[in-house]
Amino acid sequence: MKEFTIQKNDAGQRLDRWLGKTLPLLPAPLAQKYIRLKRVKVNGRGSKRDVRLSEGDVLQLYINDEFFDKPTPENAFLSLYQPKLNILYEDEHILLVDKRPGLVVHPDENERVNTLLTHIQAYLYQKREWSPYWEHSFAPALCNRIDRNTGGIVIAAKTAEGLRVMNQKIKDRELTKRYLCVVQGRMSPLEGRLEGYIFKDEGKKQVYVRQKPEPGAKTAVTLYRTLAEKNGLSLVECDLVTGRTHQIRAQFAAAGHPLLGDGKYGSERDNRRYGRHGQALYSYKLSFCFTTPAGPLEHLNGRTFQVEGVDFAAEYFPEYRNDPERAKN
Question: What is the structure's pLDDT at 266?
Fold first, then answer.
């Protein structure tokens, strides 16, 4: 319990608004709940949220200590009262989450609260499975990343052991990640391999595909197969042999088949013609194909997980159906 005495400058404020200013990490819905439960007392008694505070009033707050901290990137999860996650699978060690396009995965200089990692931390904190205030607490971490404007499956580790094993499996390519995308035109051949070298321009936050090696450029290989064709567009499944920044977007654009809706590597005129805003790219399927022992994650071996649906596939190829091999939770 912490106690506060209302001073002259705070007099006249509503109780709930004073609480919001004093404890910025405490979500407003949770503050209202604490007031209803009389965990916020004014002069020793429960009160209503709209009561006006007077100079000299004594407030007793029976609220967890962490909500009294100053806001930092490390405790931003506390301000999420209702974390929003589309969870495909969860066990003791990992989470598989279907990230929506537009959501950044990690906090950055532009967004600290509304990120995938922050939502995961808030979810686990509220389940009482994790807290940074526990001694020697492990912080939940993401095992893979997806660009802000790309949707799809992200793997999150709930334990240090899960993180260690999963990161090694990813490094050893014992996972298969499939992407769906819509490209302009018809791929020739319908199934094949895109190879080249990708050079990243850090200043422009853009990559360029080269056909020959050059200083700073990295090998990029993408396998693809066409699933459907219609109205000058192709629905394509991709398998990344390498995982370079913007690899799928840049390689298909370099091949003359930019992704629909891609404003950076595609054509704005064509995007407007098809009415697409946002790149048509989704990491939609994940398979675990372990060839070495996986310890606490061994039960995942041989399993495949797939998102329920991909909006652009349904919009431009309504006759296309998800792979029947999609695993059930």
Answer: 93
Helix (H) and strand (E) counts for the chain? Answer: 7, 15
47: left (phi over 0), alpha (psi -120 to 50) or beta: beta
**CA end-to-end span of the chain:** 43
Q: Is 75 helix (H, G, I), strand (E, B) or coil?
A: helix
On whether the CB atoms of residues 219 and 306 are closer than 8 A, the answer is no
C-alpha distances in Å from residue 279, one per residue of 102, 276, 304: 10, 8, 25
Instruction: Report whether pLDDT(329) > 50.
Output: no
CB-based contact 304:325 (threshold 8 Å):
yes
Nearest to 10 by CA among 79, 59, 70: 59
Q: What are phi and psi of 251, to 5 degrees?
A: -70, -40
- The answer to whether residue 225 scores a pLDDT higher than 90 is yes
Which tokens is 64 given? 């967890």
What is the band of 319 on the pLDDT scale with cuts at 50, 70, 90?
confident
